[in-house]
Design brief:
By secondary structure, this protein is an alpha+beta fold. The protein has a single domain, classed as Alpha-Beta Complex (tt1808, chain A), CATH 3.90.1570. The strands form four sheets. A six-stranded mixed β-sheet has the order 3-6-8-9-10-11. Strands 5-4-7 form a three-stranded mixed β-sheet, with no helix packed on it. Strand 10 and strand 11 form a beta hairpin.
Length: about 180
């Protein structure tokens, strides 16, 4: 058995700016293709709704990809949307988010759905990200997970045409008509 090379933030920072989406999951390089147009539209719509709410209520800061979320030196991800509540604001630096954000949002693409539901969900849970949303443009659902004893449990689901509140944003009623394309 050969020794596995564990990649760090320094290795990540040295990767070429070639248009690919790079992440490091527990020291291993992950490369995914750029997302498609439906993904980008849904992400932009959701980001606009969330940004307005977060800003209006002064809940913290919201970022959309690409933004480096440096969970550890060997776990660097670029979630589609990242929310950092006011208590966690010190983790925001010039190079990215250096620590555990309050909420990460992944919008599924056909090429990344298995990663977002599997390896990335496990990675976020291991690093104790309190809330994780999986947005599925095809089924028009948002599954809001909450970390409970080290594992994600489904806390709420937005589906159909009924507006819904998803944790951790208790004062935001999400209207599906503002999100789906």
């Amino acid at each position: 058995m050969g020794l596995r090379t564990v990649l760090t933030y320094e290795d990540y920072a040295a990767l070429p700016a070639d248009g690919r989406r790079y992440e490091i999951h527990d020291g291993e390089l992950s490369v995914t293709p750029a997302p498609g147009t439906q993904h980008q539209e849904v992400k932009a719509n959701l980001f606009d709704v969330l940004r307005h709410h977060v800003k209006e209520h002064r809940l913290g800061k919201l970022f959309d990809a690409p933004i480096d979320c440096i969970l550890t030196q060997t776990a660097i991800v670029q979630p589609d949307i990242v929310f950092v509540d006011t208590e966690r604001l010190p983790i925001i630096s010039e190079r990215g988010i250096e620590g555990v954000p309050t909420l990460v949002v992944e919008v599924l693409s056909p090429s990344t759905a298995h990663l977002d539901r599997g390896a990335k969900a496990q990675l976020y849970a291991r690093h104790a990200v309190p809330f994780y949303w999986i947005v599925d443009p095809r089924s028009r659902t948002i599954d809001a997970y909450m970390l409970v004893e080290g594992a994600y449990q489904l806390a709420a689901r937005l589906e159909g045409s009924e507006a819904r509140v998803l944790p951790p944003l208790a004062d935001l009623v999400l209207d599906p008509a503002t999100i789906w394309v």
